[in-house]
Amino acid sequence: MAPNSSPFLNGVPELLVLRLLRDREMYGYEIVQAIRGASGETISFAEGVIYPLLHALERDGALTTRRQTINGRSRVYYSVTPAGTGRLQALAEQWQNLNQTIAAILAEPRHA
């Protein structure tokens, strides 16, 4: 099973996008590349996953955008809003709790 086809990745794109954009604004393709780089190529989302997510996060007020033309190319840069920061904190807490629970179960099986 390829890493990106795992059902455990549900919600991961949003978590990673918000986390990366917390540090600095980026445009869509730059986000795709940053996820690949930060994960050592373990996680790779296509633009077809990231762009709809960016648009949804913007509609929900978690992201804001600005358009800039660089070398004749117009790019939309995304940055996190205060609402997006709150959403990131909630998502990160959920994932950390899930990770701790799974790690505990894997470390020492419990018997009923």
From TrEMBL:
Spell out the Gene3D superfamilies in the cross-references.
Winged helix-like DNA-binding domain superfamily/Winged helix DNA-binding domain
Q: Which residues form a coiled coil?
A: none
Occurrences of domain Transcription regulator PadR N-terminal (ranges): 17-89
Protein name as catalogued: PadR family transcriptional regulator
- Write down the species: Devosia elaeis
Q: What is the lineage of its organism?
A: Bacteria, Pseudomonadati, Pseudomonadota, Alphaproteobacteria, Hyphomicrobiales
